[in-house]
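Reviewer 2 asked us to include a model.

Predict the structure of this chain.
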Amino acid sequence: MSTTAPPHPPAEELRRQMVDRLTTAGALRTPSWIEAFTAVPREAFVPEFDVRGPDSMRRVRCGDDDWLPAVYSDRALLTQWDEGGTATSSSTEPGLMARMLEALDVADGHRVLEIGVGTGYNAALLSHRLGSGQVVSVDIDPALVDTARARLNGLGHTPTLVTGDGTAGCPEHGPYDRILATCGIGVPDAWRHQVEPGGVIVSNVGCGLARLTVHADRSATGRFMPTLAAFMRARHSPGQVMTRACQYAGTLATAIGRTRSITLPVDLADPMVPFFTFLVQPDVLQVCFTQGAGEYTYGLVDPVTDSWACISPRPDGTAHLEHKGPRNLWDEREPMLTHWSENGRPGPERYGLTISPDGERTLWLDKPTGASLRLP
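Predicted model (structure tokens):
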């Protein structure tokens, strides 16, 4: 009996199937973006990548039996790692990218700045939709920029690719009608000054996706999208090695600090918890590790002040808290989680963000004049 796997359909058919899935799921809605995703070959930008397997990462290369099926799955394809083992570049899962591109609400003639060149796939989608002359993309890593440029040019796309720190935007090629950020970076003040009044910024803020409209006074306001997502953190130099929370798991497991029993306002495993905690504590690293059969501890670390906290939930809704350092990391985040619980645990789409002209950030529920919290 032959054990040879049946051949997979050609790339064009797999691409069409992906577009059909994204359309059915509501990620793709407008004909122009459906056409772009149908036309642009993702495989041209990811000749090799890593995917997460059950127990470890697995490298997939062009020519492997599962290469094209993986390319046209709705998953992120990891394409670069730093020396510490943190992924620093990827091709975002197509469904998430489609939702963000749809949220941009672009029109013919709009000029778009993309923060994070990555593989170049998203710049190709933007170039197909708007024309290469309307697209600028910036990345801190010159090697990524050069590789993406070659792949884009090979398909006839010639957007402006710039090597630089995306937190500063790209003022020399502005102003822009839209800014799209595909890295974990928030909304730096420089961006609001490079967008035309009435323009839109779509960016990963914490574990949420914010869609903000920029006003004439350089304030910005808007809501979070229903989808939760966390992108790779932005780097400020090509060789930067990112600090990983898991580096502290061993230390936290044996650390000794002040202890007390607390009542948890919510289940810390709820996927909405990171949405809030990354907003109120963007500088705090988080890790979850096991201590005994079925027992989990959530560790929080601020490396700058050498503050840490360990929260070990109990079945009765209480938890053992152990902490040390000048910051009480649990007490800083508990009010936000209590607010969320007391308001019926709403989804991210009921929250919005306002950034004042001077950069002050306020998270609000349902409307800008509703319940609110000043963010750091």
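The chain has two domains: 11-224, 245-342. The radius of gyration is 22 Å. We have added this to the supplementary material.
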